[in-house]
Amino acid sequence: MNDDSTRGWFSGGGRDTSQLDLGQGQLVTPRREAQLATAERPVPVGHDTVQVDREMFASDRVPSPAVATGDRTPDPLADTGSVDVSGVRLRSVEQHLDEILGAVPQPAPIELAVLDAQGLLCAELVTSSRALPAFDQAGLDGYAVRSADTTTATVEVPTVLAVVGETTAGSAETTAIGPGLAQKVAVGAMLPAGADVVVPAAWTDQGLARVQVYAALAPGSYVRRIGDDVSPGDTAVQIGTPIGPAQISLLAAVGRERVAVRPRPRIAVLCAGDELVDVGATVGPGQQVDVNSYALAAAARDAGAEAYRGGILPNDRRRMVELIEGQSLRSDVVLIAGTFATGAPDVLQEALDELGGLSFTQVAMHPGPVHAFGTLGPTGVPVICVPGEPVAALVAFEVFVRPAIRLMLGKRQLFRRTVQAVSAQQLLSPLGYRQYLHGQVMRHPDGGYVVEPIGDGDQAMLARMARANCLIVVDEDVTEVSAGGLVTVMPMLLGG
């Protein structure tokens, strides 16, 4: 998989889309577009598949990705600025993303109980004030002995030692052994003075008064010495380390009940639209259930944020202003989904203008090209507006909002990893727009990946989207990818 920590999938890496010659058409680039200007353009064929036809992936029908060739390296001369489509100047995906990432805040570290810190990044250098282990102890159940007493021990000729006692974990009694003696010990028990080896119980006859030892061990075998793990002053957890179960175990061991972390960003999710009704309401003619506030809040939580579902904005400018302003006071980012008017009066745009104004723009992407971004209030809280169509809203979240959340969390890798996959069928895309198609990707029998789109890019097909496990990314200057051509695929793994 590609490492996209440097936004690799936004660069020109996917522009020279390679293909396998299956005799099923050619890749259409701008130059090829000019050649086809007077020819009949291919008509998109509706694809209503919701389950992957695995026969499409049979090696005799789809060639192995291993034999596909093509230069996928980024073009250093690629223009990442505005895109000119039919005389309309569009903002590129990179431009809009850069503006968002440049404005999102970096929340100050907070101190949390170690269990509450799970999944976050450590924001302090944690050093140990104690040694781990704090005393010499047995590494497993067995017998503590002197290594010098077992140098000749074998299965055929075992060494016989007298057992002088037993020590269990938690016992504070100080004991000692001399030559020819052994002491039974449990894992974690204090090692008796004089012993330098613990013989595993399985390597003995497990005698009670006398024990036969069947193997010779080097000094220090199965013994944990003071400070073997951590010594006083050693670093336990570095700044920027993700705190998981192992880190929580270590923090507890060095005596830390609380730790400073990068907090989860607080995201308020709101939806605008006269047609929206709550989930439990009766849906009348022309009305739609508010699914975006649920979907976007869930996506924000999956990305690591603390999401608040604000629900549907009232269709009244004064109340809308009050609600947005209130959410901005409690949030690090306000996320609004809505269908925005172009030229006609729009209550949401008027409310945002009253609060300080946002920049509404056309982004060269499909689905959902209309977006807005700006900062509101004295503290400059970022407000991100995404399209109101549910499928377009979640695509916009993946492209713009999820990277912003990961940046606020302090993550090094902002974007999902991507792979190159063979397309199982022809893909058509509008010239000048970066297309994101939901699809299903799986491994090819001969290696690599094969992907099949689910649907035809329709923005309203929720059931199809729910069956997808990836996004197929088709670059702006590619209008057609033939079956067998290579495309960039972004697997959609929860928490990935």
From TrEMBL:
A single BP term in Gene Ontology: Mo-molybdopterin cofactor biosynthetic process
CDD domains, alphabetized: MoeA
Pathways per UniProt: Cofactor biosynthesis; molybdopterin biosynthesis
Highest taxon above the source species: Bacteria
Function: Catalyzes the insertion of molybdate into adenylated molybdopterin with the concomitant release of AMP.
This protein's name: Molybdopterin molybdenumtransferase
Gene Ontology MF terms in the entry: metal ion binding; molybdopterin molybdotransferase activity
Reaction catalysed by this enzyme: adenylyl-molybdopterin + molybdate = Mo-molybdopterin + AMP + H(+)
Name of the gene encoding the protein in the UniProt record: moeA
Chain spans, region Disordered: 1-41, 57-82
